[in-house]
Design a protein that fits this description.
It holds the Pfam family Motile_Sperm. This is MSP domain-containing protein. InterPro entries: Ig-like_fold, MSP_dom, PapD-like_sf, Sperm-specific_class_P. The protein has 115 residues and is mostly beta strands. The radius of gyration is 14 Å and the shape is elongated. The model has no long low-confidence stretch (mean pLDDT 91).
């Protein structure tokens, strides 16, 4: 396995007093991917989409929003799994709690809130 899925930019510098950060989730492999975004801190962070599908070679927009709060070491985990081109339900590979597919894994994004 190489890099099947990445984030551009790969880090999220965001102020502790709140704000947004825009990113692209990039599919680098030869399979369509389903993804799920999980946060270590749902009290301060939210995203514009939790589940999604990314076609081969395409990108998806990810907007990370932070509410004001004390900065701490937080992160987002983007789990992914390969799916058939006919898949229309991005939640299906995650029904068991862990991604299921020929290719599966996760990418971690550190959330570095600064005061």
């Amino acid at each position: 396995m190489g890099v099947e899925l990445s984030l551009d930019p790969p880090v999220c510098p965001i102020q502790a007093n709140g704000g947004t950060s825009k990113h692209k989730i990039i599919n680098h492999c030869d399979k369509m991917l389903a993804y799920k975004v999980k946060s270590s801190n749902n009290s301060n962070y939210s995203v514009n989409t939790i589940y999604g599908l990314i076609q081969i070679g395409y990108t998806a927009d990810l907007i990370i929003t932070r509410k004001p709060g004390k900065p701490q070491a937080d992160r987002l985990v983007i789990q992914f799994a390969s799916v058939e081109q006919t898949c229309r339900d991005p939640k299906a590979p995650f029904a068991t709690g862990q991604p299921v597919g020929e290719l599966c894994g996760e990418t971690i994004i550190k959330l570095s809130a600064a005061e």
